[in-house]
Amino acid sequence: MAGCVGLSAALCQEGVSVVQVLLFSLFNGLLYGMLLFMLSSGLTLIFSMMGVLNFAHASFFMLGAYFAYEISRLIGFWPALFFAPLGAAVIGAVIERYGLRTVHKFGHVAELLFTFGLAFVIEELVQMIWGKTNKPYLIPSSMDFTLFTWQGLDYSAYRVFMLLTSVGIFVALYWLLTRTRVGLIIQAALSHPQMVGALGHNVPRIFMYTFGFGCGLAAIGGVLGGNVLGTEPAMAIQLGPIVFVVIVIGGLGSLGGALIASIFIGILTNAAVSYDVPFGPFFALFGVSSATDIGNDLVRMTSGSVSSVLPYLIMVLMLILRPRGLFGNRDV
Amino acid sequence: MLNVTNLHAYYGKSHVLQGVSFAIGEGEIVSLLGRNGVGRSTTIKAIMGLVEHRGSVQFRGQEISGLLTHEIARKGLGYVPENRDIFPTLTARQNLLLGEKSVGKGGRWSVDDLYTLFPNLRERADVPGGVLSGGEQQMLTICRTLMGDPDLIMIDEPTEGLAPMLVEQVSKLLEAIARRGVSILLVEQKLTIALKISKSVLVMGHGQLVFQGTPDQLLANEQIRQEWLEV
Ligand SMILES: Nc1ncnc2c1ncn2[C@@H]1O[C@H](COP(=O)(O)OP(=O)(O)O)[C@@H](O)[C@H]1O
Ligand SMILES: [Mg+2]
Question: Looking at the whole model, is its pTM more than 0.95?
Fold first, then answer.
């Protein structure tokens, strides 16, 4: 069929064009990217300020989704959008205050192991409370309709809302960090936390708030994304690694880097699936033929089939070629 | 006003401070001299609660050893680190404003006072701290700590790596600080400005004080200078 070179077979049969798919994967990629940003921004802030790589970060994304599921059953989606992140933020702050701060004395390895263990504890708790299966956390019915159709493809109201909300959160975060005194103190603590303390600012409290705030941001991601991506106990483990990929590519400690890397990874994984570019011709250039078993596998590979490893591949390349990431100011 | 008694500090197994005792009176400039690596910076960091230590540190009769760094700062101690620790993404002006412990409390120093002392900082107010020159960063880091209105300011090697003209500026600033009734603990390697402005001098060698006295007494004591100061 003309006009669908490189598209996956299913999409091609539906008769959509390359341009339509391009727009649609850009939109969905951007959306997924903004969700990733809500996780990676908090993770990278916490890391560069406290030196803690929080393995449990995606668990707060999951908590956000489960809390939102419960709260929206009781009093609706809008209160959930506010209270679920708040709850996760308070839990995060308490964990920092009474867990991490104590473990901190024993060094970074102890902290790392602590957050690692925390991720499993949270997963177990979620399974105990809500069970192992998917929860029917649904898109609020008030936004469950097609907002507009453009170039022959439907854009759902909820997805547009997700995108606007996440952009709004990015703007608010930027404003907070660059225009308020608290934000300036946080920026200062990113580079020289001891000096901030020596100037009389309560650094342990700033750490606690930042940790809680980062957990809250991740939970907003969970509230917005849980009903699209599915709310289940494995969601944290599935999303966690990709968030690390994002902050490595963007550069540890860089918010701008986290934004760009999030959107890049979001669009890349979406486009790789939609386009399903065959790698056969590429391998053929190197003389690989389908005559051998391995050759056959390689020739039949497409971007869709490798889309899930693509981000990790890029991360590995990044670590080799530019260990500080796109915008980082220190090596990983 | 500051009484340090029998201060010990360790980095791992190495015993870096081995019983340091000295006192600083109200409004005095005291210099802590010594070669590189003898433990002068560690002394200040211990007083500021930035390194683990044993011994007593009293400020205005109150024990501050064991308090958290920000609590010590809020008692009225100021600290200017040797590597300056300018916040690189913030402008010079924002760096200054973060020196204030709370907004608009007002103390001995206003932003305008400091700009008058260093017109350069006014010109460079909106430049990110990270791109200022070494001299500008040195002035900025001292001024930033002054914005917190300390009663005693501890300054670690402010003239290190500065051109002679800037060293002169630093020396003038120290005197201006003292004129407003702020005590100074100045850490230096060379004698140059220390002898000129200090009321008393301490010389440190390998984790212990080896001399305490007036600048004149130090000048007269060739043996101490030979052994512990001049290279
Ligand atoms: N963070 C640290 N870890 C281990 N050893 C240190 C550390 N900081 C300083 N030292 C060691 O402690 C000693 C005293 O250092 P310092 O107080 O910085 O000396 P000074 O300021 O007089 O040059 C030196 O031998 C130095 O190598
Ligand atoms: Mg030193």
Answer: no
